[in-house]
Write a structure and sequence with these properties.
The protein has about 300 residues and is of the alpha/beta class. It contains eight helices and ten strands. It has an eight-stranded parallel β-barrel, surrounded by four helices. The termini are close together.
Length: about 300
């Protein structure tokens, strides 16, 4: 099974002060895709520069030619399906069919209360996501949509001419719980995970592999219940959030070992963070670029 290697470029640089260069370099290095986080601010970067995901990806689309682009991940925390659909159709068009929407239920980060709302409970997040994703699917595949929901509605929302990618641009659904996995099975062209967050502080790499194996099994069960072959979905792992942390990027050999173990689990795409000095994503740029250009070939 061929493993694809992608990167995530956090939107922390002004476009003309290094931002554009990173996306161009990602294409030069041969990454399958380059993603960015869709947040208003995020964790330790909250008090520093942070730019909008969709404008950044639009700029990246005009600067690159072959690189796939996407979000990891968009969520309902501060978005509405009607306005998001219009932006996605535009971005799909500008990129020439190179856009993938990573999407999940969201969490309790800064985005969760930035619009003045109380943070949603896990149940409410799941309820909202269960309504958000099917409506977005309709908006991206139908010329006009009217739907009245508990949380999200659309009234004669028009999205002509629709996506270049047919029947719509692909969804990469981030999920680990049963409701989210069912949505991934029904609507996803890919599934995304970061591993088991409970293991990040005190777990071991071996425990993480076991947890990921369990998530794969649950995804397979959700697909079977939906009447879908799990092999139809790409399996994407956003790295950096397992007990391994940044160690796989310390050397080419370390990454090849890490990637091989996760390919055996069934992952088809690994995503590594573009190095950011003096942050949780600090890494040697030369090693990172060597991984980008040599690791997949070493996996055979």
């Amino acid at each position: 099974m061929t493993l694809r290697l992608s990167t995530v470029i956090l939107p922390v640089h002004r476009w003309h002060e290094g931002g554009r260069d990173r996306w161009l370099r990602a294409e030069e290095l041969g990454f399958h895709a380059a993603y960015t986080y869709d947040h208003l601010s995020w964790r330790t970067f909250r008090d520093g520069p942070w730019f909008g995901a969709l404008p950044t990806l639009t700029a990246a689309a005009t600067a690159t030619e072959r690189l796939r682009l996407g979000t990891l991940v968009t969520s309902p925390n501060f978005r509405h399906p009607v306005t998001l659909a219009k932006e996605l159709i535009s971005l799909d068009d500008i990129s020439g069919s190179r856009f993938t929407l990573g999407i999940g239920a969201g969490g309790n980060g800064f985005d969760a209360t930035a619009l003045g709302q109380e943070a949603w409970s896990p149940r409410e997040r799941a309820d909202r996501f269960g309504e958000f994703l099917p409506l977005l699917d309709r908006l991206l595949t139908e010329d006009a949509v009217t739907q009245h929901g508990t949380h999200y509605s659309a009234v004669e929302a028009r999205n002509i001419p629709g996506c270049l990618q047919r029947p719509r641009l692909p969804f990469a659904v981030a999920a680990t719980g049963p409701r989210g996995l069912k949505l991934a099975a029904r609507y996803g062209q890919a599934w995304v995970t970061t591993g088991d967050p409970k293991l990040f502080e005190d777990g071991t790499p071996e425990q993480s592999v076991d947890a990921l194996r369990g998530q794969m099994e649950k995804l397979g069960k959700a697909c079977a219940e939906t009447g879908r072959d799990v092999a139809e979905l790409d399996k994407i792992m956003l790295t950096g959030f397992t007990p391994d942390r940044g160690r796989p990027l310390e050397s080419l050999d370390a990454f090849v070992d890490f990637a091989g173990r996760h390919r055996e689990l069934g992952f088809t795409e690994l995503v590594i963070h573009w190095p950011i000095p003096d942050s949780d994503f600090a890494a040697d740029q030369a090693v990172f670029e060597r991984i980008a250009t040599e690791a997949v070939a070493q996996l055979g």
